[in-house]
Amino acid sequence: MSSGGSDRLALRTAVAGAAVLFGVGVADWVIWRSGPRPEVLELSPQTSYLQQPTSPEGWIDYAGAVDWMRRASLDGGGANAAEPLMRALGPIGRPGTSARAVVERWRSDAGVPPEIAEVEPLRNAGSERSPPAGDRAPAVDEWLRARCQPARHEQVGQAQIFDWLAKSEGALGNLREASGATGLYVPATRAEYITSFERVNWLALADAARLMRCAAAVELLRGDPAASWNDVEAMWKLGLLLARSPDFGEYLMAALFLWKRALGGTVDLAASPATSDETLSAMRKSLGGLGDFPPATEPLLLTRLFMLDGLTARFRIKPPAPRTETGFLTPIGFRSALVETNRHFDAMEAALQLPDPGQRRARLDAAISAGDAELMKGKDFGAKRLLDSEVRARSSLRLASIALALEARRRETGMLPGSLAELGALPRDPGSGESFHYAPNGRRFRLYGVGSDGRDDGGDRAKDEVAVAEEPPRLPPP
Question: What are the tens digits of pLDDT across the range 191-249?
């Protein structure tokens, strides 16, 4: 073969080889483009939201951030409510413990009798422990059942209620002690994929709130308004502790189980002739110094951190995601998912910060419906329920303070004012931004706010936030 032929053969071979290499490269590029590939994820407000604290691998330590927020109230050396709550409610902040086990442990430690250890408390209580029908006061029974009633509305008698309270005195003492603490800190539970920010089991707390409300009602009937107020005040304070840096369930329980019941106990005391002027004055002073219920943006923040912690969990486990000079190598699309998550939470948080109630509701609805990603579209992550709880709780405190002011005026003048305007400047209804509704009727009165939906339903207890002052019945003489 001539040298020219050899050169041409070599050229063809080189061209063919180059074509093969080019084809392989194109194929690799197509595969790379169509399959998962890494992209750089930097820690920033748009992706990780927080930038500190970080774990040894460099990821954001969301549990550590939550712990820091909750410990802040104890930095001055104040008491932690966790220990007395542990004694009253059973295990808290413990991973792998079922809700039922927590409730059963609390009831056992509190000495609650077996007949109220199930979902239907007191159902199987022996009739021999109830006083004969002829010796009972129907008005007292009805009044007590409304404040001590089990979930299924069995016809519980006075003797059964008194027996329950006597056997639960240890739990009551621990709940009272917890209410005087400065903060509530239980370390966040860290796990591979799921981190829990819950401090108190809500099922146990629901029973504890019912127990405290019942104890306050019985003390008032027995003629000890000061002792009754101690338990009502404990509900106000415990609810406030629980609503600071709370997870979703704790916030709802603080509003609906503790502050809602505390409102009822406060109004009962205001309407009772047995409540002295000194006790009434102490109640007004205590409520005035309590402070408002924390805003819904607090639990929304913890919900955001919980979401981000869950989204990044797979990159926290070993082996950690590869690190570059500017961030971490993560699958394509992961950064945009984090950005969209934070954008969605930013919009909901901005809506919740608006002062006008109507604008808050409208903007929150708009923020929820405007989610761009499929994951976020129409998701509120509990924001509406958080707003509802905030309005309910703040309504409870404001209604209670107005009820005490009305009773103080009645004692000064001998009659209730014809309108709330006669009392001067008063807190506004957080559901409407307007004045609360008020209707006097002799020594009694009715107050209500419109609730978080902003609609006036005429004081319907199921839809509005209502406080009715009625003089409690009296126990018959022994």
Answer: 767 788 888 877 788 889 999 999 999 999 999 999 999 999 999 999 999 999 999 99
Q: How far is CA 262 from CA 82, 246, 284, 303, 354, in A?
A: 21, 19, 14, 27, 27
Other beta carbons less than 10 A from residue 186's beta carbon: 20
What's the CA dihedral at 452, 454, 456, 457 to 10 degrees?
Answer: -50
**What is the spatial distance between Cα 50 and Cα 59, in angstroms, rounded to a whole number?**
10
User: CA-to-CA distance for 50 and 69, rounded, in angstroms?
Assistant: 13
| Joined tokens for residue 62 | 């969301």
Tell me what the mean pLDDT of segment 92-111 comes to: 46
Angle between helices 138-148 and 202-221 (to 10 degrees): 150
> Between 70 and 133, whose confidence is greater?
70
Say what the pLDDT of residue 18 is. Answer: 39
In this structure, are residues 83 and 200 in contact, taking their beta carbons and an 8 Å threshold? no
**How sure is the predictor about 11, in pLDDT bands with cuts at 50, 70 and 90?**
very low
Beta bridge partners of 80: 183
**DSSP code, position 92:** -
Cα–Cα distance, 121 to 153 (Å, whole number): 9
Token pair 């419109």: residue: 450
Give the SS3 label for residue 379: coil
Contact 399, 465 (CB under 8 A): yes
Whose CA is closest to 163, among 213, 116, 94? Answer: 116
| Rounded (10°) angle between helices 158-167 and 138-148 | 40
Task: Look up residue 278 and give its two tokens.
Answer: 């000194």
Statement: the pTM of the whole predicted model exceeds 0.70: yes
Q: Count other Cβ atoms within 10 Å, centred on residue 141.
A: 19
pLDDT at 335: 87
What span, in angstroms and rounded, lies between the C-alpha atoms of 301 and 246?
9
Q: What is the pLDDT of residues 39-64, one digit of tens each?
A: 888 889 999 999 999 888 788 999 99
Bond into 319 cis (ω within 30): yes
Tokens at residue 12, please? 């063809």
- Cβ neighbours around 41 below 10 Å, total: 21
pLDDT tops 90 at residue 370? no
Alpha carbon 394 to its chain centroid, in Å, reads 13
Task: Quote the DSSP letter at residue 431.
Answer: T
Residues 47-63 as b or e (16 or more Cβ within 10 Å = b): bbbbeeeeeeeebbbbb
Buried b (16+ CB within 10 A) or exposed e, 200-219: bbbbbbbbbbbbbbbbbbbb
- SS3 state at 295: coil
Please report the pLDDT score of residue 319 as a whole number.
Answer: 61
pLDDT band at 416 (very low <50, low <70, confident <90, very high): very high
End-to-end CA distance of the chain, in Å? 130
What stretches of 325-446 show up as alpha helix (H) in DSSP? 334-352, 357-369, 383-413
